[in-house]
Structures
1.
Amino acid sequence: MKWMGSIFIAVTVALLALTHRELGWQLRHFNLPRVQPVTEGLNLPPCPGCNLVLISADTLRADAIDGNPSGATPNLARLAAKSVRLTRAYTNAFYTTPSHMTLFTSLYPNRHHVTGSEIHITGFERTDTGTPALSPSYKTMAEILRGVGYRTHWFGPLSLKHLSLELGFSRGFEKQSPTLFARPGRFIEGQEFEVENYGRELAATGVPFFHFLHSYITHLPYFTAGEDSRLQAMFDRDRLQRLYYKRLQQAPLPMPPVHDADRFDVFLHSLGQFQLRLMEGARERLTEKTEREEQANLLKRGYAVAVEELDRQLGALLDRLEKTERTLVVLVSDHGEEIFEHGRASHSTFYEHTARIPMMIRHPDMSEGKTYDGLVSLVDLLPTLLSTLGYPIPEQSQGRDLNQGPAPFAFGFALGSAFATDGEWKLLRNARGQDEFYHLRLDPQEQDDLVNSWWPPIRRAREHMREARSRWEREQTL
C-alpha cells in the first residue's frame, strides 16, 4: 500500500502549490492600484475637406517606438510629438490581408472574409487555395472618399499576394504606384516611387487627396537599405544556416540546399512558419538553450535595425508632408511581431506583442501631441476619420467613432484563433482551440495563465469575457 501513500503525498503537494499560486496572485491583485476606465472620446477637432495620408508600417510593434527624439527612432518621436498617440490600440487579425481589409472597411475579418491565400508550405513549395475578394456590397475607405471628391492614390506593393489588388484593395484608388519605402532584396518587385516625385505630387494637388502608403521594412526577413555596415550584415548567412538549416533537415519537411540569393530570401521569410512547426513537435524541438538565445538575439537585432531604417526613411517623407496644408497624417501597423516571447517567431498568435499596435493621428490644428488611453482597434479608424473629416459613417461600419468614446472591448479573429479584451482582462483562444486567460496589468507578458483559476473574481471576469466574445462571434454571422 506504499503506492497509495505516495499518491496522497503527491496530490497534497500539488494542492498546496496551487493554493500558494492562487493566494500569491490574490495578494498582488489586492495591492494593485485601481484604474478608472477611460470614457471620454478622442475629441479630434473637425477637419472638413482636409487631406488624409494613411501610413501602414507593416509588422511594427507597439513597443518599437521609444518616443525619445534623440533615441533610436527620432522621426517616429517627431511625429508623435504633434500627434494623438493611441496607447491601447489593437489589431483585429494577426496577419496582413485581413487586418488591412478591416482598416479599409471597418468590418471585422470574420465579416468581410478577405483572409488572403491559405499558404501550405512543404519545403519551399507553396500551394495557394485562394480567398474571396471583398463583396461589392461593401465600400472601402478609398471608394468613400473618392465618392465625395477626393483624389486617391495607392503607394504600396503591386505584386504582393497579401495585399493583392484583385482582392479589393484597389477599389476606389484612381492611381496605384509602387511603395515609397525602399526595401532591398527580391521580396517586393518593382522600383520604388521616389520621395522627391512624391513631394512634387503633393505640391501639384489642388483638391483634397487621400494617399495610402505601405511599408514592408519591418517584416521578416528584416532587410534594410543604407550604407551602415549593420544594415548590410545584420543577417549572417553562415550563422542562420548553422542555427536553422540543420534543424530543418531533421524535420519531416523536404528542404533543398540553400545556394542562391533568391532561395535564401525565401528561406529567411519562411523562418517564422518553419519555426512554429519545429517548436510544436517534440522531435523537432530546439532543446539547446544557447541556440534558442542566439536565434532570439539575432532576430531582435535584425528587427531593431529594421525599425531604425523605417524611421530614417520616414523622416524624408515627413519633411514633404509638413509642407502641405490641412493634412491629417495617420501612422498605424497591421499587427505586431513576436520574437520568441512565447517560443516562436513572426506573427501567428494574438499575444500582446502581436496584437498590440502603434497608432498615431497628427491633426493640422493641434500644435502639440497628447496620449489617449481608451481602448481602440483597427476597425475603429474608418468611422473616426470620416467623422473628423465631416462625412457620414456608412451603415456597414462595425467600428466606433472614437470621437464619441472608446470601445468597451477589442476583438480579433484569424485562422481559428481569437481574442477579446477589455484592457484589463484578456481571453485568448489559441491555435489548438484552447482558451487562455490573462490579467494584463499584473501580467503584461502573458506568462501566468488563469484559465483554470478557482478564485471567484477571476472566474467572474473569465465568464464575462467569454460572454462578450461569444456575443461578438454571433454578431459576425448575422
2.
Amino acid sequence: MLELRAIRQELTSLRCETRESLPPPIVHPYLEFIIRGILQGFGTVVGATVVVSIFLYILAQIDFIPIVSDWIQMIVKEMQIRH
C-alpha cells in the first residue's frame, strides 16, 4: 500500500514538472486549431482517395461474375470518361 502511495506521489510530481517545463505556445492557440483542422481535412481526402482507388482497382479485376461485371464496366467507363 505504501508503494502505491509513493508511486502516486511520484507521478503527481512528474506531471507538475512536465507542465512547468513545457515551452510557451509558439502560435496563437486558435491558429493551431485552424492548421490542425486543415491538415485533418487534407488527410481525410487523401485517405478516402486511396481507399476508393484500391476498391475500384479490385472491382475492375472482377470480370468473371456476370451480374457484377456489367455494373463494374459501367463504373470503369464512367471513371475513364471523367478523367
3.
Amino acid sequence: MIRAVGPGNHDGDVTDDIIVTSDVDIFTAGTYSGLYEVTDSSGNYASATRTVEIYPPGCPLLHLLDIHRAAVRI
C-alpha cells in the first residue's frame, strides 16, 4: 500500500489523490514498473517509480526491487 501526506497541515493525507500508472501482470512472469504521482492543492508534485519482478509458478521467491531492496521467501 502506498500512502502520502502533504507538507504542512493544509492538505493532510493525499493518498486518495495518487495516480498509479502500472503495467504489472501478476499472471505473466517478467519485470514490471509502476509510477505513482500526486499533486497537492498548492501544485507541489511528487512521484515514485517501483519495479516488481513476477516469477513463474512454482518459484518460491518474490523480489520487490526498490531503493530499499527486499527479498521475501514464501
4.
Amino acid sequence: MKKYAESPTKDTNKKNNVTMASAFKTIIWPRRNLVFVGLLLIVIGRLAGFVLPLKSKELLDSIIPKQRPSRII
C-alpha cells in the first residue's frame, strides 16, 4: 500500500516569485478593454440607482400634496 503522507520534497517548498505588477501585466492589461467596459457598466448602474429616489421625492413633495394627477404621466 502506498503511503500518502510523505514528507515534502525540495521542489514543493520553493516559492513562486509572482508580483502584483507581473500579475497585472499578464492577466489584466491584455483585457483592459473588457475591464474598462465592466467599470463603465458599474458606474452606469450606480447612477441609475439614483433615478428612483429622485423621482419618488418629486412625486411625494410636489405632485401629491398639490393634487396634480396630470403631472404623474
